[in-house]
Amino acid sequence: MTNNSKTLYTGMTNDLTRRVYEHKQKLIPGFTQKYNITKLVYFEETSDVNAAIVREKQIKGWLRTKKITLIESVNPDWKDLSTKWYE
């Protein structure tokens, strides 16, 4: 997830729709609330929670440039992928 300044946040959840909503509504105190992280620009899905944890840690360990390359490989315009989820 990101904000208008392209500050990046990486996390995992078992319910992406709920979690993105919580971030958009600033219901979760902390980094995303403080930096207004409300745009979903990239996500991956898996049914294996252990694989999700490993992948989250992997991405968090990357340099910013590598994270940007990953985002832009599927979302070059950094559009909010969750825009129509809550209509």
TL;DR of this structure?
The protein is mainly α and 87 residues long.
Structure description:
- The chain is mainly α and 87 residues long.
- It starts with 15 loop residues before the first helix and ends in a 13-residue tail after the last helix.
- It is built from 4 helices and no strands.
- It is globular and about 30 Å long.
- Helix content is 41%, strand content 0%.
- The mean pLDDT is 96.
- It has helices at 16-24, 31-34, 49-60, 64-74.
- It has a domain at 16-74.
Task: Chart the SSEs and their pairings.
Layout: H1 16-24, H2 31-34, H3 49-60, H4 64-74
The total of helices stands at: 4
Portion in beta strands:
under 5%
Q: How would you describe the shape?
A: globular
Share of helix, binned: 40-55%
Please describe the biggest sheet, giving its number of strands, its sense, and whether it closes into a barrel: none
Give the rounded overall mean pLDDT: 96
Span from first to last CA?
A: 19 Å
- Give the topology string: H per helix, E per strand: HHHH
Class by SSE composition: mainly alpha
* Poorly predicted tracts of residues: none
**How much is the radius of gyration in Å?**
13 Å
Total beta strands: 0
For the structure shown, list the relevant keywords.
single chain, 87 residues, mainly alpha, 4 helices, globular
